[in-house]
Design goal:
There is one protein chain. The chain has 715 residues and is α/β, with parallel strands linked by helices. It folds into four domains: 152 residues, VC0802-like, CATH 3.30.2130.30; 182 residues, Vaccinia Virus protein VP39 (Rossmann fold, 3-Layer(aba) Sandwich); 94 residues, Transcription Regulator spoIIAA (2-Layer Sandwich); 211 residues, Rossmann fold (3-Layer(aba) Sandwich), CATH 3.40.50.150. Helix content is 32%, strand content 25%. It has 17 helices and 30 strands. An eight-stranded mixed beta sheet has the order 2-3-1-4-8-7-5-6. Strands 11-10-9-12-13-15-14 form a seven-stranded mixed beta sheet, covered by helices on one side. The chain is globular.
Length: 715
């Protein structure tokens, strides 16, 4: 019996899906808005379910009808004899999309479809099917558009991209059918007779390599799936399905045995490689793929044979800033040109601008959607012979800094010399060397011992991002040269306004902590895993003042961050310290800072709380010295209210002063450059601005970095 089927797929996959279905022997194949229609017997639909690498679902249309109102929808669904398709005891899931003038709510549409099916079973058999959303026996798709209703049986069950092998995944994994589509557009597996390696230098949980290996070994993507939408369908032809499975099993055995392609994946994170190995093991192809730790800077072919390098580098704010990532993309381009002669390369990114710095002209670019993100796949051919352009480029790379780059280097040398006596006199390990002194080089450069933290001020989007990158390249090169340190110890981040809990979010998990000293205090610093480093350099004079004034006193640190001020207070002889912050991560860091300095007693307290709410609950003046340094703005979900330091500072200060003993001192600081303290509303207190005393030598060029006040009770 011949049927008309619809195979759905993500946007942009339609031509690939059409080619697949033709290769499966489907007839009357036609591309439509949501996928590809085709004609055939049940065996053709089963084959599409089993073998399609790019489809989402294979649907069997049951009805096309007109339905504007709820009653018309109900009657149309009732016109189908559901006993031909399922048993009364089967479980059922219904999806409803679209709308009409009378039906503008998908939940309402779903209920009407469900009622029509259930009522028919109850009227005819006295038994009604159960509703099961996750793994139903039968899944029905309904779509309503401008009064046109279509009803289909889902032969797939769950989406076909769920192959069943990926039980573990890393950060931002590709869907399996997207990975397959990228490989097909890269020419794989057609080129496997000539290209005997597939390499992913940023492989994560291994999806690209696993899909490539499945293609090369002729493994049906659906072979290990446990559940199908047709398993409990009454018209299912089990013998036909079993025959297809048997054929696929034999093809897999032959494909694995005869495979002569090497698949190699590297990643800096050993933990995600464990996931990748486990995923390959779920398909019994772990022997085909080698996963090992490795850095992009050191990527190279496994042997002399040409191959396909295909990768999906990070490209968004969630995984890193674009300026920082440009160095990764430039490195990929450099390594391709240096070590991968004669190879093909395909780079998939949601930020095509990043690929401009790869330095290769793509042969072809394809548009895809990675979820909601419009993305592109760039295909490159790295020619085996070196060209004169290659030689000129390589010669240019070993030349000294450009004229502007040398100007920037000279400014660093000048600043370094200007701070030398001050640093030596005060034994300062961590300081600011440069802060956008030259407008074209809009970065802040902070030194932490033998590490450097470069923070780029985000450039307007109107500025050519490649030019921005070239300037950053000057910055990174000149900084390492002037300071005579390993370039790997120069860490780049992008400065921009943060909101919510972004300042608390972990940006990596490398665990790269090291130690710096400040006025007899030791602090843990991390330049790579977090937005901030663990030590606010501009507060150095404030911390020293707290250290000098703390002896025998009870000290309170509000919005304490990593509690560096609390450590200074403890070193200064404080009787007790109390540090309050919303972040458990930073309080854990705080406790380690305190322990590093030899303080583990019960006199030092760390409280995880919203400071504003915590202040409301405190009533007794229990502290002699208080430091409060709130963020400029926060709308964290963990806070009950939105915090705005300009709007809320009167309330904050008044609440804090309730906790300050009669002869005590509150040091209030914030980094809002336009901040204006409301002296009139705070007239009950004695207030002295001390900002000028809290700006150290390294911040003299930027004296608006913070505002600071001493606040006391009036006598």
């Amino acid at each position: 019996m011949s049927y008309r089927f619809l195979a759905t797929c993500p946007k942009g996959f339609e031509p690939l899906l059409l080619d697949e279905l033709v290769s499966f022997g489907a007839k009357e194949v036609k591309q439509v808005a949501v996928g590809v229609e085709f004609k055939g017997e049940l065996a053709d639909a089963y084959r599409a379910c089993l073998w399609s690498r790019v489809a989402n679902r294979v649907l069997l249309p049951l009805l096309s009808a007109k339905a504007e109102s709820a009653d018309e929808l109900y009657d149309a669904i009732q016109s189908i004899d559901w006993l031909e398709h399922m048993e009364p005891h089967n479980s059922l899931a219904i999806s409803f999309t679209g709308s009409s003038r009378a039906i503008n709510n998908s939940h309402f549409g779903t209920l009407k479809v469900k009622d029509a099916i259930v009522d028919q079973f109850r009227d005819n058999t006295g038994v009604r099917p159960t509703i099961e959303r996750d793994t139903p026996d039968i899944r029905i798709h309904t779509h309503l558009y401008r009064g046109d209703l279509s009803v289909s049986l889902d032969l797939s069950g769950s989406s076909l991209h769920r192959r069943g092998y990926r039980l573990h995944s890393g950060t931002a994994p590709l869907k399996e059918n997207l990975a397959a589509a990228l490989l097909l557009r890269a020419g794989w597996p057609k080129i496997k007779t000539e290209f005997k390696q597939v390499y992913d230098p940023l492989c994560g949980s291994g999806t690209l390599l696993i899909e490539a290996a499945m293609m090369a070994a002729d493994i049906a993507p659906g072979l290990d799936r446990k559940h199908w939408g047709f398993n409990n369908w009454k018209q299912h032809e089990e013998s036909v399905w079993e025959q297809l499975l048997d054929e696929a099993e034999k093809r897999r055995a032959v494909g694995i045995r005869e495979n002569d392609v090497a698949f190699i994946g590297t990643d800096i994170d050993a933990r995600v490689l464990e996931n990748a190995t486990a995923n390959a093991g779920n398909l019994s192809i772990e022997s085909m793929i080698e996963f090992k730790t490795g850095q992009v800077e050191k990527m190279r072919p496994e042997n002399d044979q040409p191959g396909l390098l295909i990768t999906n580098p990070p490209y968004g704010e969630r995984l890193g800033d674009s300026s920082t990532l440009m160095f990764m993309y430039r490195t990929i381009g450099d390594r391709l040109k240096e070590a991968f002669r004669g190879w093909k390369a395909s780079v998939f990114t949601g930020n095509p601008e990043l690929c401009q710095v790869i330095g290769l002209k793509p042969d072809k670019a394809y548009k895809f959607y990675n979820g909601p993100i419009e993305s592109k796949l760039f295909n490159y051919h790295i020619y085996a012979e070196r060209t004169s352009q290659d030689e000129n480029r390589e010669a240019a790379e070993v030349e000294p800094l450009s004229e502007n780059g040398q100007m920037f280097a000279n400014r660093l040398k000048k600043n370094l010399k200007g701070l030398a006596k001050w640093r030596k006199k005060n034994a300062i390990d961590a300081y600011r060397l440069y802060d956008a002194d030259i407008p074209e080089y809009a970065v802040a450069i902070d030194i932490y011992g033998d590490w450097v933290h470069v923070q780029e001020y985000a450039a307007p989007k109107s500025i050519d991002q490649v030019k921005v990158f070239e300037r950053l390249k000057d910055v990174m090169t000149a900084t390492a040269q002037v300071l005579e340190i390993n370039p790997k110890r120069v860490v780049l981040k992008q400065r921009k306004r943060q909101s919510g809990t972004q300042q608390y979010e972990k940006h990596g998990h490398l665990g790269k902590f090291f130690e710096v000293n400040e006025n007899n205090c030791r602090f843990r610093i991390n330049l790579k895993d977090y937005l901030d480093t663990g030590l606010f350099l501009d507060h150095r004079p404030i911390r020293l003042e707290i250290q000098k004034q703390s002896k025998g006193k009870d000290f309170l640190n509000l919005f304490s961050y990593t509690s560096t001020a609390s450590v200074h207070a403890a070193v200064g002889g404080a009787k007790s310290t109390t540090s309050v912050d919303m972040s458990a991560t930073y309080l854990s860091w705080s406790a380690k800072n305190m322990a590093m300095n030899g303080f583990n007693s019960s006199a030092h307290h760390f409280i995880q709380a919203d400071c504003m709410q915590w202040l409301k609950k405190q009533r007794q003046p229990a502290y002699d010295l208080i430091f409060m340094d709130p963020p400029t703005f926060s709308n964290s979900k963990r806070m009950q209210d939105v915090l705005d330091v300009q709007r809320d500072h009167v309330r904050m200060i008044s609440s804090t002063m309730r906790l300050l003993r009669e002869d005590g001192l509150l040091i209030f600081s914030n980094n809002y450059r336009k901040f204006k303290l409301d002296y009139e509303l705070l007239s009950a207190f004695e207030i002295v601005e001390i900002t000028h005393r809290t700006i150290d030598m390294d911040f003299k060029r930027n004296q608006h970095i913070h505002k600071c006040y001493e606040i006391r009770h009036k006598k």
